[in-house]
From TrEMBL:
This is Prostaglandin reductase 1. The gene is LOC108732407. It holds the Pfam family ADH_zinc_N. GO terms for molecular function: 15-oxoprostaglandin 13-reductase [NAD(P)+] activity; 2-alkenal reductase [NAD(P)H] activity. GO terms for biological process: prostaglandin metabolic process.
Length: 339
C-alpha cells in the first residue's frame, strides 16, 4: 500500500532582501517530500535557528530557493546506518519542517548533519547555540585567534547575543577584564550581573569612545568584533601596543547592499601606530574539531562556569519574524524558534 505523501512547510525567498528583510520578501508554502533513497534519512524539525549569516549570505540564493538555516531535527525515517531513527541531529537543512539529509558537508560548508551527543537534561535547542555553531565560534575564536592571557583587557561587541555573551564568559574564565558592548540596558544587566562581565556600554545611548577610555584607561589588549562599522573603528583607536583584533562578524552592515556599504573611520593609522594584529574566526574552518568545542562548552556548563540564555519564539510560522527581530536586537542570548 502506498504511503500518503508527506508535506513540509518551507520558507522560500520571494524577493531578494534590500535593507531590513520584509515579510513580502518570503513565501511560506507546503511542499511534498519525496521518498528517501539509500544513504538518506528524513528528519522533522524541532527547533529552527535564526542567525545573522542568513542575512549576510542571502544574496547567494535566488528567488524560489529555500531560505537556509540550521535546525535540530528528529530522525523519523532512515536508510543510513549513520543516522538511526529517534536520534536528534543538527543540520543546515534550511527553514523547513521536514528535511532529507545524508552524511555530507552542505553547500555552504556546514558540517554533515551531526547527531547531538548526550547532553543530559539540558535542552536540545542548545545544540543551535551554546552547544553548537555559535558556541564553537566563541570557543575557537578565543583558543585559536584571541589566545587570551590572565589580566588582559578584552572587549566584545554584540555582547548580549549568542557568540558575544559566550566569548565574554570564556574571557572571564581566562582571568581577563571584560567589557561588553550591546544595544540595551537589559542585555547590560544580564552580562554584568549574571555573567560577570566587568563593564557594559550601551552603544545606542552612550558615547562608546568616552566610556571605553573610562573603563580601559590603558587601552584594550584584545577586541572580538561581531559588529563592524563605526563602533569597531572607535575601539581599534583604543588598542594597546601589540593589541589583537579578532573579526567574527559585521552585523551592522548586513542590511546594506554590497554597493552601498556604510563608511567607517579609517583604521590604518591606529593599527600601524600600535602594531595591532588583526585575525579572524570562521567557525566552518573547524569542522574537523566540531565536537571538541561542544564537549568543552558542555563541560563548562556542567561545572557552572558557562551560562546561557535563549530567546525562544513559538511556532514555525513565526520563523521569519523571529529572524527580523534578531537582526534588530530583539534577542538576548541565542534566538531560536520552537517548531
Ligand atoms: N565568523 C563566524 O564563523 C561566525 C559564526 C557565527 C556568528 N558570527 C557573527 O557573529 C555575530 C553575532 O552572531 P550571533 O549569532 O551571536 O548573533 P546575536 O548577537 O545573537 O544577534 C545579533 C545581534 O546583533 C546586534 N546588532 C544588530 N544590528 C546591529 C548594529 N547595527 N550595530 C550593532 N549591533 C547590532 C543586535 O544586538 P544589540 O541589541 O546589541 O544591537 C542583535 O541582537 C554576527 O556578526 C555573526 O555574523 C560569525
Amino acid at each position: 500500500m502506498s504511503q500518503t505523501p508527506r508535506k513540509s512547510k518551507v520558507f522560500k525567498l520571494k524577493n531578494q532582501f534590500h535593507g531590513l528583510p520584509k515579510e513580502a520578501d518570503v513565501n511560506l508554502i507546503e511542499e511534498i517530500v519525496p521518498a528517501i533513497k539509500e544513504g538518506e534519512f528524513l528528519a522533522e524539525a524541532v527547533y529552527v535557528s535564526v542567525d545573522p549569516y542568513v542575512r549576510g549570505l542571502i544574496s547567494t540564493i535566488n528567488p524560489g530557493d529555500t531560505i537556509f538555516g540550521s535546525q535540530v531535527a528528529r530522525i523519523i525515517e532512515s536508510k543510513s546506518k549513520d543516522y538511526p531513527v529517534g536520534k536528534h541531529v543538527v543540520g543546515e537543512f534550511g527553514w523547513q519542517t521536514l528535511s532529507i539529509g545524508k552524511n555530507e558537508i552542505n553547500k555552504i560548508g556546514f558540517p554533515a548533519p551531526w547527531i547531538i551527543p548526550d547532553i543530559g537534561n539540558l535542552p536540545l535547542s542548545l545544540a543551535l547555540g551554546v552547544l553548537g555553531m555559535p558556541g564553537n565560534t566563541a570557543y575557537f575564536g578565543e583558543t585559536e585567534v584571541c589566545k587570551l592571557k590572565e589580566g588582559e583587557v578584552f572587549v566584545v561587541t554584540g555582547a548580549g547575543g549568542a557568540v558575544g555573551s559566550h566569548v565574554g564568559q570564556i574571557a572571564k574564565l581566562k582571568g581577563c577584564k571584560v567589557i561588553g558592548i550591546a544595544g540595551s540596558d537589559e542585555k547590560g544587566r544580564w552580562i554584568t550581573k549574571d555573567l560577570g562581565f566587568d563593564h557594559f556600554i550601551n552603544y545606542k545611548t552612550s558615547n562608546v569612545a568616552e566610556k571605553l577610555a573610562e573603563y580601559a584607561p590603558d587601552g584594550v589588549d584584545c577586541f572580538f568584533d561581531n559588529v563592524g562599522g563605526e563602533i569597531s573603528s572607535t575601539i581599534i583607536y583604543q588598542m594597546k601596543k601589540f593589541g589583537r583584533v579578532c573579526i567574527c562578524g559585521s552585523i551592522s552592515t548586513y542590511n546594506n547592499d554590497s554597493g552601498d556599504l556604510p563608511k567607517a573611520p579609517e583604521i590604518q593609522t591606529p593599527i600601524k601606530m600600535k602594531c595591532v594584529t588583526m585575525g579572524a574566526i570562521r567557525v566552518l574552518d573547524y569542522k574537523d574539531r566540531w565536537l571538541e568545542g561542544i564537549n568543552q562548552n558542555l563541560q563548562w556548563i556542567k561545572e557552572g562556569k558557562l551560562k546561557y540564555r535563549e530567546t525562544i519564539t513559538n511556532g514555525f510560522e513565526n520563523t521569519f519574524n523571529a529572524f527580523v527581530s534578531m537582526l534588530q536586537g530583539g534577542n538576548i542570548g541565542k534566538a531560536i524558534v520552537k517548531v
